[in-house]
Amino acid sequence: MDTRSPDPRSRSTDTSVSRFAQSLKSHGFRSWYERQLIISHGFMVTGLLCVVALAAWIEESRQHAALSDQLIGFAFAALGGWFGLQCLREYRRSLITAEFVSGQASCPNCETYGRLTILDAEGEHAVRVRCKHCAHEWLIEDEPNKQLPST
Ligand SMILES: [Zn+2]
Q1: What is each CA distance from 140 to 65, 66, 123, 144, 151, in whole angstroms?
Q2: How far is the CA of 129 from the centre of ligand 1 (A)?
Q3: Per-residue model confidence as pLDDT tens digits over 24-68
Q4: Ion ligand 1: protein residues whose beta carbon lies under 5 Å
Q5: If you measure from the C-alpha of residue 110 to the centroid of ligand 1, how many angstroms do you get, rounded to a whole number?
Q6: pLDDT tens-digit readout, 110-127
Q7: How far is the C-alpha of 132 from the C-alpha of 10, rounded, in Å?
Q8: Where are the domains positioned within the chain?
Q9: What is the CA radius of gyration of the chain?
Q10: CA of 107 to the centre of ligand 1 (A)
C-alpha cells in the first residue's frame, strides 16, 4: 500500500484538519502526551476551583440582604458554574484523548512503546507513524468516540 499518496481532501483543509498531526509532529509523541496530561489537569484544577467558588458564593449569599447584591452574585455564580462545567468537560475530553492516543503508541509489530516518527496526517483525526525500532508503519487516531460509546 502506498502510504505517501496525498489525500486531496486532507490537503484542501490542511491547516485545521491536521491539527492533531501538527501537534504530534511539533512536540513528538512523548512531549505531546505529557502536555496533554498537564493541560487536562489544568482544566481539572480550574473546574474544581470554580466549583469551590460556587459553593463559597452559595454560603456567602445566605448573609446578603440586598436583592441587587444577590442578583449580581447569582450572575457571577451562574457564569462560574458554566465555566467550571466547561473546564471539567474539557478535562475529561483531553484526558480521554491522551489515553486513547497513548494506547495506540505501541508498535503492533515489535511492541516498542512510544518510540515513533510522526509521518503524515491521514484525514481529520488520524496520523501515520513509523516505529523507530523496526520501521513498521501504522495509524494513530485521536477520536475515541468513533469506537467507544459516548456517555
Ligand atoms: Zn516496531
Answers
A1: 57, 57, 11, 11, 23
A2: 10
A3: 888 999 999 999 999 999 999 999 998 888 888 877 777 766 778
A4: 107, 109-110, 112, 131, 133-134, 136
A5: 4
A6: 999 999 999 988 888 899
A7: 25
A8: 8-146
A9: 21
A10: 5
